[in-house]
Amino acid sequence: MASPRELTQNPLKKIWMPYSNGRPAQHACPRGVCVTNCPTLIVMVGLPARGKTYISKKLTRYLNWIGVPTREFNVGQYRRDLVKTYRSFEFFLPDNEEGLKIRKQCAEAALRDVRRFLSEEGGHVAVFDATNTTRERRETIFKFGEENGYKTFFVESVCVDPDVIAANIVQVKLGSPDYIDCGNDEATEDFMNRIECYKNSYETLDENLDKDLSYIKIMDVGRSYLVNRVMDHIQSRIVYYLMNIHVTPRSIYLCRHGESELNLKGRIGGDTGLSPRGKEFAKSLAQFINDQNIKDLKVWTSQMKRTIQTAEALGVPYEQWKVLNEIDAGVCEEMTYEEIQEHHPLEFALRDQDKYRYRYPKGESYEDLVQRLEPVIMELERQENVLVICHQAVMRCLLAYFLDKTAEQLPYLKCPLHTVLKLTPVAYGCKLESIFLNVEAVNTHRDRPENVDISRPPEEALVTVPAHQ
Amino acid sequence: MPMELTQSRMQKIWIPIDHRPSLPRPCGPQLTNSPTVIVMVGLPARGKTYMSKKLTRYLNWIGVPTKVFNVGEYRREVVKEFSSYSFFHPDNEEAMKVRKQCALAALRDVQLYLKEEGGQIAVFDATNTTKERRDMVLDFAKENDFKVFFIESVCDDPSVVASNIMEVKLSSPDYRDCSSAEAMEDFMKRIDCYQVNYQPLDPDNHDRDLSLIKVLDVGRRFLVNRVQDYIQSRIVYYLMNIHVQPRTIYLCRHGESEYNVLGRIGGDSGLSIRGKKFSVALCKFLEEQNLKDLKIWTSQLKRTIQTAEALKLPYEQWKALNEIDAGVCEEMTYEEIKETYPEEYALRDQDKYYYRYPTGESYQDLVQRLEPVIMELERQENVLVICHQAVMRCLLAYFLDKSADEMPYLKCPLHTVLKLTPVAYGCRVESIYLNVEAVNTHRERSEEAKKGPNPLMRRNSVTPLASPEPTKKPRINSFEEHTASTSTSLPSCLPREVPTQNLNLNNSQNQF
In this protein, which residues make up the domain named 6-phosphofructo-2-kinase (chain A) (predicted)? Predict the structure, then answer.
């Protein structure tokens, strides 16, 4: 009887994998995120100022955050790199042969880069951001996808509401490099003419002619959607995401619980209550929230005592989410860094080597956290004004989503105690304000030390540990 | 003192000592304040009842109290003998009256369920093919402050329609005395009766302000309009992920582990000799099943992976499939737990579904953790899930529509594969023991627990309920019109059950 292959546990991620002759044999695939076999090419479709770039960037940010390597390719950007100075909308006239040639070249250059990203650089999803308003152009791209073994998914944004279009122009077009030397009125007029250039030849995705394509048509900024032939998991997630985002102005407030008893002692994890200063912070937070005068604020906490105590001081209803609990440090729960170095020096070094992927023995990694927090992000997208009272590692993950930080940067984002981060969506990104509520607290941020070698002496491992009792 | 908290003994939830009115909801996203009426729309044999039942099962499993109200069943209660399709002919005035009253009776029960029985979502399963009928339902909902979400199924593919009729109509009580051919013919004529007056939802114009999803051609296309809230967004996501392709789901546990043999719970031990034997037997079993494109999923614990390794096929590891975290009790035997944590031991027996191990998890937490697994299982076709006892119980409860109360006691023995095949409106389950001995890890309900859960215990959302039995009580004594508005004649004597989302202030004292 043949025995199953022996397993060994990868020291960093604690993943069990088979090995033979002392080496990991097959790369077992741990399902962190949706794994696609074929890369996916997302093709944006729509007249100018319909939110294509907004959607491209947001979708790209989301997919990268959940661990799907994604990049957007904005053809307008390629055009700006090629045609150094933008003169006027006449460049986009349908009978401007010179213009058409250049624009076609740009599209082709972008597609070449798409191919490099998806077929050579390990990308999973490429977002091809251009108007793609004719069936002919879309067929060319679809063929390109087929030739290269990509699945193609179209995202069309249709909107006829003149107020929405005007608002979009103000938000993102007036500040475009194209209009750097123009007054606002001039720029708006030119842009409206630009849109006209596309209108005549615009062929919207059609329920008959395009019935075999996979696509989502977004109408009136998300009032309604038409979804056709979703092929796989990643497309289903993309559709779900697009159907949950909105553009209503609002703010998201992120902060940690007030300073806790264990914070003071330099211990990680656990489930203690607030220190006296932590309680003071909770009161200051209540005052701050009051002063912000926020309409219909939702307040979310974890299920750990310290966040709930903090929320209690606000005197408003709040919801407890278990998934907002701090990262589980497994066997290292309630230890100080000094104790971890003493009892688990190898683990301590591995963590410094790859803090994002490192999983505590019997605990979690930042990578696990991201997966756990995905429903929080989805619900944050659905909501309007929200205050999330959470924990250091959790807050770093959420912040990384909003500020588009990489896996390498994420575990080192600064999220100090007693500081509220106010995030307000603006243009293609997020405005960030940091408000320290003027109540002293320990510093819990530990920078990556110089020496991450497993053979390093303890002093070098502990050199960046912040002071504590 | 504000900010003074205490931790509930059963669920380990922190709550303020001085119960002020604005209590937190220890759940995930707040689902919805107003109850919702889901209104199915479509010609007969378009999958309305299939979707109603499946959706209801899913919503109950994730803890949203949901119930189906099938107007056809009300009709069968009233009209004892079904004669023929001519009952459904639009000119049959007598029958039209009866059918309308059935709809009204069902709506009255909807109102009762949502207002007085703690229901959150009612699925009104009928054809609802005319604007007039839908306007009636909209008025009813408005009067009662219910949200309305329409689900329309449109399908013109004759082979799909014929196949549906075969699958679920031929065996309907309506046709119990007919041959298949007769039944098929009659049913096709029944459909024609509706076709004449069918007014599909029109989100571009007439229905532009309604919240709806149109499912076209069994899920090839969807049109979604004005999703109002979280639960509608989940419903849409679910409907877009389910399919009707025939396939089989296999659930089993890892082979017997070293810890199983020692009677220790949790941990991350490897397979025992017999466990390894089981994996080999599993490999052989799968070969005999001769499956097309089987996906294999394991947890990230050693014992499931070792089991999968023997299959010599690619597999995916899901952390979400890990066994329930027993917190401070990890790696203990039940005797040790009883000795070291007697109170915890007793609490768990009292309410095994809600009980959370200190610094660990509850079955309720598990359901939340496993929801993405269920969603992906719906998307997939043939899958084998190699998991753990508590995890398997949760998954099985979803497929077999078991309540939170039953779930922690479902039998999932080692070395036994459960083969689930979707059929008609449910799931057929076959249990295949692979003939390799193993210890028994199943603990029956204790005598204490058999008394039933403490009725005063606080409930949260995420309480799987089995889909309630359809209400068939006829509320019609004659063929007179009854209106379905909130008339004062409705009985208000039914006690209000504790809705799972709202915390009952007064009961919290019983927690500690």
Answer: 35-249
- Residue closest to A376 by CA, chosen among A412, A402, A358: A402
Which chain A residues touch B317 with a CB distance below 8 Å? 15-16, 28-31
CATH code (residue A185): 3.40.50.300
Contact across the interface for A301 and B30, Cβ inside 8 Å? no
Q: Are B36-240 and B249-446 equal in CATH topology?
A: yes
Residue A319 resides in a domain: yes
**What distance in Å separates the CA atoms of residue A18 and residue B379, rounded to the nearest whole number?**
29
pLDDT tops 80 at residue B135: yes
Please state the ipTM of this predicted complex.
Answer: 0.94
Please give the full DSSP string across A33-91, using - where no structure is assigned.
SPPPSS-EEEEEE--TTSSHHHHHHHHHHHHHHTT--EEEEEHHHHHHHHSSS---GGG
> Is residue A26 one of the residues assigned to a domain?
no
* Same-domain status, A329 and A353: yes
Question: Is B344 known to sit in a ligand binding site?
Answer: no
> A436 and A294, same structural domain?
yes
Nearest-by-CA chain A residue for B237: A240
A300 and A420, same domain (yes or no): yes
Residue A191: partners with Cβ closer than 8 Å, 6 or more residues away: A48, A49, A89, A169, A173, A179
- Residue of A131, A169, A140, A153 whose CA lies nearest to A63: A153
Kind of pairing, strands A215-219 and A151-158? parallel
In a domain, A275, yes or no: yes
Taking contacts as CB-CB distances below 8 angstroms, the residues of chain A near B222 are 225-228
Domain ranges, residue A148: 40-244
Helix, strand, coil percent content, chain B, rounded in steps of 5 = 40, 15, 45
Question: Same domain for A400 and A265?
Answer: yes
| Residue pointed to by tokens 């075999």 | A212
Q: Which of B2, B12, B307 sits opposite A312 (nearest CB)?
A: B2
Mean pLDDT by 10 residues, chain A (469 residues): 74 88 53 65 97 97 98 96 90 93 95 97 97 96 97 97 92 90 92 94 96 97 97 97 96 98 97 97 98 96 97 95 98 98 97 97 97 97 98 98 98 98 94 98 97 96 95
What is the pTM (predicted TM-score) of this model? 0.91
* Cβ proximity of A219 and A236 under 8 Å: no
Looking at the fold, whether A222 and A327 belong to one and the same domain comes out as no
Select from 3.40.50.2020, 1.20.1060.10, 3.40.50.300, 3.40.50.150 the CATH code of B36-240.
Answer: 3.40.50.300
Q: Scanning the structure block, which residue is given the tokens 């919503």? A: B59
d(CA A140, CA A348) in angstroms, rounded, equals 52
Question: Residue A298 and residue A306: Cα distance in Å, rounded?
Answer: 18
Distance CA B446, CA B347 (A): 11
Please count the residue pairs, one from chain A and one from chain B, whose beta carbons lie less than 8 angstroms apart: 154
Total domain count for chain A?
2
Is B260 annotated as ligand-binding?
yes
For the stretch B150-190, pLDDT in tens is: 999 999 999 999 999 999 998 899 998 889 999 999 999 99
Can you tell me which residue has the tokens 């199943």?
B442
pLDDT digits (tens, 9 = 90+) for B387-438: 999 999 999 999 999 999 999 999 999 999 999 999 988 999 999 999 999 9
Q: Which fold has domain B249-446?
A: Rossmann fold (3.40.50)
The shortest C-alpha distance from B306 to chain A (Å) reads 6
